[in-house]
Structure formats: structure tokens, C-alpha cells
Amino acid sequence: MRADLEQKIPAVLPAGEVYLGGFTTSRSPYATGTGGCDVPDKRRPRVLADGRSSSGDFLGKFGEFVFRFLTADFSSPSQFDKVTDPAKRAKAQKRKKTFFGGWDSLAGQWLAAAQPRAKVGVVVAVALTERNFHFVYAQYNRWNGKLDEAIELGPSFRRDCLSWTRLTGAHDHDVQLGFSDGSWGTLFGPDTEECAKFFPHTLGKRDPIP
Description:
Elements: H1 3-8, E1 21-25, H2 57-70, H3 86-95, H4 106-113, E2 121-128, E3 132-140, E4 147-158, E5 162-167, E6 174-179, E7 184-188, H5 192-198
Antiparallel strand pairs: 1-2, 2-3, 3-4, 5-6, 6-7
């Protein structure tokens, strides 16, 4: 994780929580389309409402849009069955689907937290403490990449709700996260090195989904 972001994170964590490290994350451009991991807008949290665009940010936003247009990288959210159907889960396991569980599942909630809505550029970080994962949203300038002042704490998840992690093989930064309710989802980040640091038992792409 970038050093300037790591310096800001401890100040927004709840009292008594000690920052142990973290990683940045975002939607995966390789887990989109029907059955993918793009979250519907109504499920995505609005963040950094007080953030103000800084010089050059609009040009950065426009450039980002052009790049996504040229690469046909557009979100395509769809609906999913509930995680409680074991037959459908077994089929999804066999096919190594990118997402299973529905938007109300732990995986669905995690995916939503990682894909916030904002009028400014947002870096999404996951901060680890002894007991929890905390989502943190920091504003950045989309033109020069520098962090701005706005930063806020987002949803939190107990560390024991994450059951397993798995590299998908689609990209070095694509990681599947499996949860205690049987759901799983795929996101961009943490990278392979961060997975080895924070999740030493991460599964490989040839391993089956648990």
C-alpha cells in the first residue's frame, strides 16, 4: 500500500483498534458481465460527500472514462440467488464462478463496500486490526494521483468472517475471498505479495473453491 495512505489510516480507525497493515482494492475488470461482481448502484455506498474536486481532477476523470470506453470496461450488474441453496453452490464451486451468494451475503456486502460511489476520486483501502477488517475511503486527484485531505471510515467486518482466499489466475491482482456464510466474491487486489503477507494460506488457481 502507498505510504501516504498508510500514514492517514490509523487516525480514522475506532478507538482501541491498532492498525496492523492493509491493502487497496477495487472492482475487477475481469469479473464483470452476467454472473460477475459488479454491484448495482443502489447497493454501493455514497462516500466522501464533503470532498471537493481539486485542480486537474476533471481531466483525470475524463481520461479515465475514455480509457474504459476504449477497452469496453463497463460494469454490468446482475442479480444472484441466495447463498442458502446448496445445489446451486456446488455447481458454482465446480465452475469456479467469480461470485456466489447474493448481494445480502457477506461477499455481496464486501463487494459493495469495495465499489463506492463518489463525486471525487476514491482510493479504497482495507485496514486490518486484531479483530476486524475496516474499509477506508481516501480522496485522490485523478490527474496527478496525489491524496487530498478527505478520508473516512466505511463498513467493518470481523476477521473471522473471512474463511479463505484464492488467486484466480485471471490477473496477478485478482483475488477471490470466501466467507463464513458460504459466499465468495472476486476483486482487484490485494496483489500476490500482499496475499502472502496477510493471508499465508491463500489457494492457487488450480485449487478448488472450498
